[in-house]
Amino acid sequence: MLAYRTPGVYFEPPASRPVLGLPRTDVAGFVGVARRGPLHRPVRLESRNELLARFGGPTPQGYLACAVEGFFANGGQTCWVVRAADPEKALAASVDLADDAGATALRLTASSPGVWGRKLTVTVLRTGRGRFILALRLGDGPQELWRDLSLEPGDPRQAETILNDPGTGSRLVAASLPPGGSGAPPRAQRARLAGGADGLATLRIGHLTGQGSPPDRPWGLAALETVDEVAIVALPDAMPVPRVQPRTKRRPPRCDVLSGGCNDAEEPLTEEPEEPLEFPPVPDELAISEMQRALIAHCEKLRDRVAVLDVPPLDASGASRNPREALAWRRDFNSSYAALYYPWLRVPDPLQLTGLLRDVPPSGYIAGVWARSDRRVGVHKPPANEALEEVEDVLFRVGDVDHGDLNDDGVNVIRPFAGRGIRVAGARTLRSDDPLWRYVNVRRLLLLIAEAIDEGTQWTVFEPHDLRLRREIDRVVRSLLDSLWRRGMLDGATAEEAYSVLCDESTNPPAEVEAGRLVCRIGVQPPWPAEFVVVRLGKTVGGVELIEDPLDREASHA
């Protein structure tokens, strides 16, 4: 910056507009049923450990945790998760810690609704001078130890202030003091939280899709609308969950001071019998279709994300859904904002509900494949011919003939290939009436370009609509498209073949100017997947000659 010390006239070049940047396309959003965690509030996760800490591991009541684990296992790095339940029925467990006089000194409430809080053990140790130690242990999961706490008002180590701090406080409980409390610390004791409810028995379609939710407290997908970063969405718990109660066994007593046991002066906690889990209602095919339509409408409304859909695993008779029935399911949809995958996956099950493997919907694993492909190559690459990690088998093995029928109709097949593992063998959308939007990579690339231009040209609002503004828009848009072409994200031997930009008087006649609109017409040539390549074998005097003969695009994609 110039130092204006001498009187005079100074000339400075105008600040140039920044080149448009590219938003991320590898961020996924999931809505479903979890063990614990905040209800109907998006939470950003970047690892499996964060998933376990915030929402817990896999549960028999839903597929959300399995889907997110599959996302991270297949290369995903960032996702947003919304836990769904009936907010009117979901309750948090709690416990009252008494002082020496038997009065309630401190109430601890689980940090989120659900019966998970019943497994939370609280140990209080007195240290003298009105101070105490609070130890929290969630089964074999997270532990917290809070030292030198007090209940005296104004004390910097006051328990309510320390535990409820939004940045450094407890992730397991919230603390509250009774009105008119004496400030005396709780006596030495061990206790377990009681009560709580998952709020799943009354779970409705609207709790997952957001339809009918209060404007100030949106549910499910509606809560995910506020996260602009999301580019891939999945609703794994639109699928029915088998009502299988997990097998449990009595845990042997511990002998450490945090959990009590044989060396603890207090009476050890007795093992309470496990109550049956609360399962969500089993959706019929009409309800599943309604939820998937709502997911597609969510994407079409926001125009910055694409949905990954699952084919229901069973037909009306309870048998595995075969390819013919998968085709019938696909014909209920027609949108370039969604892709459908078949069949389900068989993955290792830590719960061992029905054996070592569990059948799960593929959407979470596919979202991870999309994210991995985006980061390694780019969103322009079709996310197909990619291996699925941490998958042991598929629920239905599709043959070549059925694969061809499914692929022609826009159902992306997952198949095991000898020596190559289980792979995604399709990258088509559910758009059936327009070949231009047939492929997932084309739709997502165009969404990327539109969002980059939209976010990078917000400065044009209220600018004078003149030749200078139109030239500036032309420059920044050309700069973006040229960078995409040079990175191989657009087809064409030259820039003129790859893209075109027109922003002048022809696209902005007086009527458009008077209406306050600025129109820039953009044309791009996206890369088309090489789904079919013909190899000709020619017998010559010198041997066998291989000639690759790419099929005519229109003929090969017909």
Mind explaining what this structure looks like?
There is one protein chain. A nine-stranded mixed beta sheet has the order 2-3-1-11-12-13-18-19-16, sandwiched between helices. It has a four-stranded antiparallel beta sheet with strand order 8-7-6-10. With 558 residues, the protein is α+β, with helices and mostly antiparallel strands. Helices cover 24% and strands 21% of the residues. Helix 2 (64-73) packs parallel to helix 8 and helix 7 runs parallel beside helix 9. Helix 6 (285-302) links the parallel strand 11 (232-234) and strand 12. The protein has helices at 48-55, 64-73, 159-163, 205-209, 220-224, 285-302, 323-330, 363-376, 400-408, 440-456, 467-486, 495-498, 510-514, 553-556; strands at residues 28-32, 43-45, 79-83, 94-98, 104-110, 120-128, 131-138, 143-149, 173-176, 189-192, 232-234, 306-310, 338-342, 345-348, 357-360, 386-387, 393-394, 411-417, 421-424, 499-502, 521-524, 533-540, 543-550. The protein has three domains: 28-87 and 200-243 and 279-436, 3-Layer(aba) Sandwich (Rossmann fold); 94-192, Immunoglobulin-like; 457-524, no CATH class.
Strand order of the largest sheet: 2-3-1-11-12-13-18-19-16
The helix content is 10-25%
Strand count, sense and barrel status of the largest sheet are: 9 strands, mixed
Give the total of beta strands: 23
Could you say how many structural domains there are in total?
3
